[in-house]
Amino acid sequence: MLWLLLFILWLIVNASLATPILITGAVISFAIALIFARRSNVWHIAVTPRSAWHFLAYTSVFFTELVKANLNMLRYVYSPRIDIHPGIVRVRIRLKSPIGRLALSNSIALTPGSLVMDVRGETMFVHWLDVKRTDPDQATEMIVAPFEKHLEAVFG
Q1: CA 43 from centroid of its chain's CA atoms
Q2: Rounded to whole angstroms, what are the CA distances from 79 to 8, 72, 75, 85?
C-alpha cells in the first residue's frame, strides 16, 4: 500500500507517463516502501473495502474543511477590522496508532488558521487563530471531529 501511495505521488510530481519515469518511480518507490516497512510496523495498514471507503470520505471531508478554512482566512484578510482571538486550545483525541495521529495532526496543520503544537497522551494542543470555544469537548468537536471518525476507521 505504501509503495502504491509513493508511486502515485511520484507520477503526480513528475506529471509524465514516459517509460523511464515510470520505471524509475517504481524502483524508487519500492525501495523507500521496503525500507519503511522493514523498520517499523507503523506502515502496516489493513486495506479493506470499509477502510478504503473511509479514506475517500476522509479525503472529501479534508478538502471541504480546507476550502472552508481558506474562505475564512480570506474573510479575515479582507475585512477592514481584524477581529480575531488567537489562543491555544486543548482537544481530546481517540486515535491510538501513530500514523493515524500523524494524519490527524497534518490535517489540522494544513487547514489555515490552526497548527498542532504538541501531543501528550490523549491530548493535543492546537494553536487556533480565532478561538471560538475554550471548552475541550466543544473545541474537539469543532477541530478534530470532522477528521477523526474517518481516520479512526482507516488507521485505528
Answers
A1: 15
A2: 40, 11, 6, 15
> Which candidate, 99, 118, 108, places its Cα nearest to that of 139?
108
**Packed helices 2-14 and 19-39: angle between N→C axes, nearest 10 degrees:** 140
Q: Which tens digit of pLDDT belongs to each residue from 123-137?
A: 999 998 888 888 888
Whole-angstrom distance, CA of residue 123 vs CA of residue 91 = 6
Closest CA to 144 of 55, 56, 62: 62
C-alpha to C-alpha distances, 122 to 50, 70, 98, 154, nearest whole angstrom: 25, 28, 12, 18
pTM of the model: 0.71
